[in-house]
């Protein structure tokens, strides 16, 4: 679910079940006239056009199409409203109704690659020069074991720990040093509660966000949710039990999690912005909602990397990639990469586009320069940051603990199969642990694993 720029949990992570994939017919020359050569026009169908019920974004999208075609007269775009929808994707694929280019979530590329449902883009990315401009750590999401690339990341996030710098200061904690381990997080949460009377820590628990954040926490404890091929639940184990025990002890022993335990993204954001929560797991672009929407003082926002426990295990990541039809010709692949670069990555690789986007953000009174997990390589991202530096209107120093670590922190995708159904099965586990002091953690995990295995085995 791209809830964070993301935003992750609520809808992007459901797998494909059928084996075949085809693409909407394209009028590009199968003989391979080169895009950009002027020899012959290539036509590709591109998805993700907003519907007429969203006129502002539709107009922006259509303008981008027009601008692209003006800059690339030998490429004709046929925009369609097709979006990634796990309930219709396979029927569209089987019926040849998918566009040549489509946005899908991070959870999908490995399955698509295994089923040969996407084009190999390695050569065209190298020819375009885009390969060296992409973040190699994020690019792995769309690569096979040989390093060939089948999906282009265009938006990414990794979960960290958002914290209230004002509450840290009031509690006698250094606001520039968020906890690095879950043991430290527990100690910080207890101190915040004792010194300020507010919940030192809170965690999402409803609308699939409970399972989503428990997955993130389990990863940080060295655990996993599904085995490698997504055929079996793997969370009925020591790391997941330890993660839940930490929540139980913070809630019932330390009493540092407050009374409210039924939070979704919106609810926890509002409570945090109101100064009622010291720390919770989220991604850097939570800044937008907390400050712009919910009125948190910008100076109170802080974020660090995901605390780890008993080793450097990594953190959950998510985002979006662009895929290309496996039936695309070389010329259509080249045209597709040009469109992907122009529509989704332009501001990172083109100074004029970067400056224009930054100016527009400032004019719209939106945060400009919010750090995150970049989809482009470190050098390219640094160049982009230099381009927009005059327009940045967020306190970058408050993101420093995250940015110093997160770029190198291992990223782990969401569960590869039926992630949303898995999250739904885990929601009540987290809710029960936080709602009942005598909850049987092992029994809860065993029961949930049985529920998930039944779904994975369907």
UniProtKB/TrEMBL annotation:
Domain of life the protein comes from: Bacteria
Polar residues composition bias: residue spans: 39-55
PROSITE patterns: PROKAR_LIPOPROTEIN
Pfam families documented for this protein: SBP_bac_1 (PF01547)
Native source organism of the sequence: Kribbella solani
First and last residue of the signal peptide: 1-19
Name this polypeptide is given: ABC-type glycerol-3-phosphate transport system substrate-binding protein
Region (Disordered): 28-58
Keywords: Signal
């Amino acid at each position: 679910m791209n809830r964070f720029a993301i935003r992750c949990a609520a809808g992007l992570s459901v797998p494909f079940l059928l084996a075949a994939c085809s693409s909407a017919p394209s009028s590009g020359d199968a003989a391979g006239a080169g895009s950009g050569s002027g020899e012959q026009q290539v036509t590709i169908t591109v998805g993700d056009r907003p519907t007429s019920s969203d006129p502002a974004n539709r107009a922006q999208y259509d303008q981008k199409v027009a601008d692209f075609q003006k800059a690339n007269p030998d490429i004709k775009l046929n925009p369609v409203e097709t979006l990634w929808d796990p309930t219709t994707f396979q029927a569209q694929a089987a019926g040849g109704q998918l566009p040549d280019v489509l946005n899908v979530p991070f959870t999908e590329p490995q399955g698509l690659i295994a089923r040969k449902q996407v084009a190999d883009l390695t050569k065209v990315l190298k020819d375009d020069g885009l390969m060296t401009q992409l973040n190699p750590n994020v690019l792995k999401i769309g690569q096979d074991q040989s390093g060939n690339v089948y999906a282009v990341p265009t938006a990414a996030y990794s979960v960290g720990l958002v914290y209230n710098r004002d509450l840290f200061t009031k509690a006698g904690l250094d606001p520039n040093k968020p906890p690095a381990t879950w043991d430290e997080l527990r100690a910080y949460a207890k101190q915040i509660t004792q010194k300020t009377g507010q919940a030192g820590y809170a965690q999402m628990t409803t609308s699939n966000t409970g399972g989503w954040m428990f997955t993130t926490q389990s990863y940080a404890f060295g655990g996993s949710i599904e085995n490698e091929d997504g055929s079996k639940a793997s969370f009925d184990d020591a790391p997941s039990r330890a993660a839940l025990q930490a929540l139980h002890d913070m809630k019932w022993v330390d009493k540092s999690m407050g009374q409210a335990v039924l939070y979704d993204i919106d609810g926890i954001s509002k409570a945090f912005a109101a100064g009622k929560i010291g720390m919770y797991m989220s991604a850097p672009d939570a800044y937008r909602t907390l400050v712009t929407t919910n009125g948190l003082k910008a100076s109170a926002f802080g974020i660090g990397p995901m605390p780890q426990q008993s080793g450097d295990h990594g953190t959950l990541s998510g985002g979006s990639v662009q895929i290309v039809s496996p039936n695309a010709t070389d010329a259509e692949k080249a045209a597709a990469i040009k469109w992907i670069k122009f529509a989704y990555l332009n501001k990172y690789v083109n100074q004029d586009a970067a400056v224009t986007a930054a100016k527009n953000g400032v004019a719209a009174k939106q945060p400009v320069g919010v750090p995150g997990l970049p989809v482009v390589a470190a050098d390219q991202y640094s160049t982009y940051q230099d381009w927009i530096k005059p327009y940045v209107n967020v306190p970058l120093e408050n993101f420093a603990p995250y940015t110093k670590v997160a770029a190198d922190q291992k990223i782990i995708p969401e569960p590869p199969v039926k992630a949303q159904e898995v999250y739904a099965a885990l929601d009540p586990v987290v809710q029960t642990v936080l709602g009942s002091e005598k909850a049987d953690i092992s029994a809860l995990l065993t029961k949930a694993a049985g529920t998930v295995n039944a779904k994975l085995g369907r």
